[in-house]
Amino acid sequence: MPACLHCGEKWTWKDTFKRIASFKNEMVCPYCKKSQYQAKSSRQKTSMLIVAPSLVLPVFVLFDLYLPLLLLCYAAAFLLTPFFVKLAKENAPLW
Ligand SMILES: [Zn+2]
Fold first, then answer.
1. β-pairing, 87-88 with 35-38?
2. Contact yes or no for 87/27 (Cβ under 8 A)
3. pLDDT, tens digit (0-9, with 9 covering 90-100), for 69-85
């Protein structure tokens, strides 16, 4: 889980997840309320994580696999994203 670049407080999974789920690039620290951004490398990792289940979608359709399992993959990907969040003081373009 990331630590605030301003006050150094470590964010909880819930804090981090809430900030990701808002889909805003700017992340406000729950402790000192200062803005920071998700680091570029971290954003690439988390977006790959979210896209990954879509890559196996054709396999699910082709082999007539249990689709709720895919939803479970999506849920797992979302739940794991806070572990890959790193913060940066500057906003940078994704690619
Ligand atoms: Zn802070």
1. antiparallel
2. yes
3. 888 888 888 899 999 99
Residue 51 to residues 17, 28, 57, 62: CA-CA distances in angstroms? Answer: 17, 25, 10, 19
Query: Sign of dihedral through CA atoms 22, 44, 48, 83?
Result: negative
Task: Return the H-helix or E-strand segment holding 11.
Answer: none
Q: At 28, is the secondary structure helix, strand, or coil? A: strand
Tell how far CA 79 is from the center of its chain: 8
Find the 52 Cα to ligand 1 centroid distance in Å. Answer: 31
CA of 93 to the centre of ligand 1 (A): 23
Reported as a pLDDT band with limits 50, 70 and 90, residue 7 is: very high
67 CA to middle of ligand 1, Å? 41
Where would I find the beta strands (DSSP E) of 1-95? 26-28, 35-38, 87-88
